[in-house]
Amino acid sequence: FFFFFFFQAEDGIRDFCLSRGLGDVYKRQHNIASKEAARIIDKLTKGHDFYKKSSLKYSNKLPVFDPLKAELCPPSHCGYRLKRMCLSRDCSTVLMGDTKIPVKSLKRILDSKCTNSAINYYPFSLELENRTRIELIGMSKDDINVWAKGIELLVNKATLIPIKE
Q1: Which of 41, 66, 80, 159 lies 20 to 30 A from 90 at CA?
Q2: DSSP per residue over the chain, as a string?
C-alpha cells in the first residue's frame, strides 16, 4: 500500500478578513500626494516677497547683483524692487505687483544653486514658455523651493484636490 499525502503550500490564504484591495494602497498614496500639493498651493496663494528685476531703461547702467557682495550692494541698488508674488485663488495666474502671468505660460524655475550659507539672497529666474525670463532674488531658499515645487505641480497639471484636515 502506498499513501500519498498532499499538503497545500502557503498561497497567501489566511484567516478570513475582508481585503481592502490594491486600490486602497494607491488611493492612500494619492491622498498623501494631494495633501502635500494642497499645502504647497496654499503657501503660494499666501505669497512670498521677492526682489524683481526692474525693466527700466536705465537698469543696464546699474551694477550687476552679486549675492556674495550683497552687503556692499544690495538688490535695491542693482535695479531690483521688492514685490509680493502669489498665486491667484483659482490657480490660473501668478500675481507680482502689477504683473499678471498666466499659469499656462509658466515653464519652470531656474535656480542659481547657491550653496554658500553666508549669503542672504538667492538669485533665480522664472522661465516662461516663450523663453523669456523674469529675474528674481529670494531671501529664503525655502521660499524658492516651495515655488519650484508649486510650479512643477501646476505645469504638470497635477490634480489638486483640496483636502480638509
Answers
A1: 80
A2: -------PPP-S--S-----HHHHHHHHHHHHHHHHHHHHHHHHHH-EEEEEE---GGGGGSPPP-GGGTTTS-GGGGTEEEEEEEE-TTSSEEEETTEEEEGGGEEEEEE-----TT-S-EEEEEEETTS-EEEEEES-HHHHHHHHHHHHHHHTT--------
